[in-house]
Amino acid sequence: MMDLMKRAAADLAKSTYAIALTGAGISTESGIPDFRGPSGIWTKDPEAEKRAYQSYAKFQRNPKEYWEDRLTGPSLLGDLDKMAPNSGHYALAELERMGILKYLITQNIDGLHQKAGNKRVLDYHGNAFKLRCVSCSARFEAREFDLRRLRMEGQLPPLCQRCGDVLKSDVVHFHEPIPADVAQQSLAEAGKCDLMLVCGTSAVVYPFAMLPRVAKQRQLGKEAVLIEINAEPTSLTEGKVSDYLIQGKTGQILPKIVEEVSRISERQPFK
């Protein structure tokens, strides 16, 4: 495995436009449950999954009822405010600080990459700490709105401060399209990268799962190097989309790769 980590570090060090994709596997190491794993939220509570499939239709039909449910129902992922990044998150933030990682695209809604220090993040499935306008796509920090007070005063749903239309959670629900700005930029980043780290995701949920394939069919000619860091082989491994798999926990592997990149680049080692 150490040979593969050294190979990944060498590939990163010589890349000119590296990006990373991340999924639930990097956040489970911070104590955030996944959805479909053996102890996943949907696995343990199929009824919760059924309700989740109805959320977007409910918002479209009755935004006030949608917000009532969100403010009174249980939080499936727990208190995300109290969750902290782990060493895998910090390693990716260090790669960005070093100028190697140009963008990070995540399926996770927990905001842990931002907490760790990444600045160039695309929240592919939205961000639990933000609200998004259905008309102009403006995004606002949820803390800018006193949602509990709005509920008590009968003033739900919250309204956009830019255009006045209805706001929903920025989280992308089942049957809801990926926001156009995020979808377009994600495709653009995948299309121009020369290296893609795929960390903690099996890349089977579409359209996110298209991004590794896009990187392998770059418009700029030569296909990108695609490195998987996952606990188990995935469809990317089996379909030979990835160049190689480093099997294990992202929180253990990524810091070691960054240490090796630092050594190669003669920079301060990652701690």
Task: Characterise this structure.
β4 and β5 form a beta hairpin. The chain starts with a helix and ends in a 6-residue tail after the last helix. It has 12 helices and 9 strands. It is α/β, with parallel strands linked by helices and 271 residues long. The chain has a 6-stranded parallel β-sheet, sandwiched between helices. It has a 3-stranded antiparallel β-sheet with strand order 5-4-6, with no helix packed on it. α1 crosses α12, α4 runs antiparallel to α5 and α6 packs parallel to α12. Helix content is 40%, strand content 14%. It folds into 2 domains: 168 residues, 3-Layer(aba) Sandwich (Rossmann fold); 85 residues, SIR2/SIRT2 'Small Domain' (2-Layer Sandwich), CATH 3.30.1600. It is elongated, with a radius of gyration of 19 Å.
Short synopsis of the structure:
The protein has 271 residues and is α/β, with parallel strands linked by helices. The chain has twelve helices and nine strands.
